[in-house]
């Protein structure tokens, strides 16, 4: 039966091992590190979960992080990541092992100290990343059931962004940056229209979805088909909404440091005009 060699024991349930095929791997298993020493041989069947940290920096970060985190939490986060992989049926960026462990451990410490961090774009996250939000809800529920600590809905939003980051191979800072940008753009719309868009309305959901896809198109450098006739018509018919759309695309350009195709203005104008009509009807 295949076995691996112990390279470093991080705690009773986590070791770094030398795998016959993959070289250095992180191995998680109940009691797998107990009484183990470097160079010991362990049967592969003893490993409940195993993952490869191919990036050298990631390996070092993980080795430093694990001894600082409660062993029961590491076990639960391992289950959470395993559940996510099973449900999305897609590979997750390996950084999630570090990012999620670090984030949740810190969130739990804050909770114990009575420190609450408000999530400024919770509504946006729930609307834009519904699948990731459901997975994050499940993660927070598992932590509550097993550790009797309820991290709350603000943390569900933050964890959802980490899951989205791992699924799309985007760095979490970029994901947060996009969520913050969408939140800021909505604020500009509300201030200009002097209209608080109901967060549970279809209009709000549509606007967020449109902004999200616009940011994704800009990030990928995806060209949007020009609509010259429609562009002229919208500019003539709805000059105020056209100007607001133009302003929003300029904000996107400045924040993303990437060009925005003019056709985005036309698409946005139509959404904004619908909001203007909704305001007039209310």
Automatic annotation (TrEMBL):
PROSITE patterns named among the record's database cross-references? PRD_2 (PS51372)
The protein's superkingdom reads Bacteria
Q: Does the keyword Repeat apply?
A: yes
Presence of the UniProt keyword Repeat in the record? yes
Please name one Pfam family that this protein belongs to: PRD
Q: Which SUPFAM superfamilies would you find in this protein's record?
A: PTS-regulatory domain, PRD, SacY-like RNA-binding domain
Q: What are the alphabetically sorted keywords of the record?
A: Repeat
Domain named PRD is located at 68-173, 174-282
Gene3D superfamilies, per database record? 1.20.58.1950, 1.20.890.100, CAT RNA-binding domain, PRD domain
> Which PANTHER family does UniProt cross-reference here?
CRYPTIC BETA-GLUCOSIDE BGL OPERON ANTITERMINATOR, PROTEIN GLCT
What is the protein name for this chain? Glucose PTS transporter transcription antiterminator GlcT
Gene for this chain: glcT
